[in-house]
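Below: protein 1.
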Amino acid sequence: MENSLGWKAIDNALDNLYQRKENKHFAPEIVPSLGGDDYLEGVSVYFNESNYHYHYISYGLSELHEKVSEDSKYSGWGYELTFRLKKVEGEEEIPTWPVNLLEQVAKATYENEIIFDAYHTIFSGPVDPESNTKIEAILFVKDPELGTIQTEFGEVTFLQLFGLTESEYEGITEKSIDRRAFIKKEQLTNPQLITDITRG
């Protein structure tokens, strides 16, 4: 990845945030740039000791290795995905279902050309299919710590997925809940917008 300037730009942003802290990287056996069927080249996960959570970051929605698109302002689709998950007490292994969740959102972008932005919503069903979670939808926000970066291939915004209950999703989409006011209120006690899948 010596010439992968887009990849390096993401790594640099994460190094600045986590001071080169060790991370876990999940990647498909054959990455998309080499002909694989997945949409993401990989997902890195850092344990953030602030508020005790995992921070997932995607690689693959922006241009990682070379400039392909004619749009000089944005790199690829213009964003990468992030997700912050509250660590369950006693949990030893990093949960892998968020990696699949980010892959499914990336699939929607690539296959349906859906360009997500802050305050967009999607109904996903239970975000962790193997649990009894009531978190069944997503509200996109700009990652509170990573924000937007400039790369050699254009601008990349880190879009974070924040989990919603079905009633929250319905309130937002039916406009009985203002989505910006909802996030502003949430950040009073949860500034990093960490998803807790155990909440009701």
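Below: protein 2.
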Amino acid sequence: MRNGENMLNEKDSLQDMLNLEKTMVKLYATALTEGASKGFRTMAQNHIKETANDQLDVFMQMTEHGYYKVESAPETTLSEEKNKFSKVKGQLS
């Protein structure tokens, strides 16, 4: 703490940016689904894509610095989840 100000460390700053990027993707998705004009929807799609890429960049920085641990799932778990989503997709078609 300096002069009564709170200072964020690198990990906290990256976590804050990650949370912000995730929130922005959700807000752009809401705007996209509520938008009626083609131009607006195209703009929202572009913003979602750019923001999702930014979110991934921050996430990758966090993993590279060891701030975010990612564990690989066993192949059987991945297969089970894939089957679940395939069934749901089939029911929606």
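Residues 38-64 form the longest helix (27 residues).
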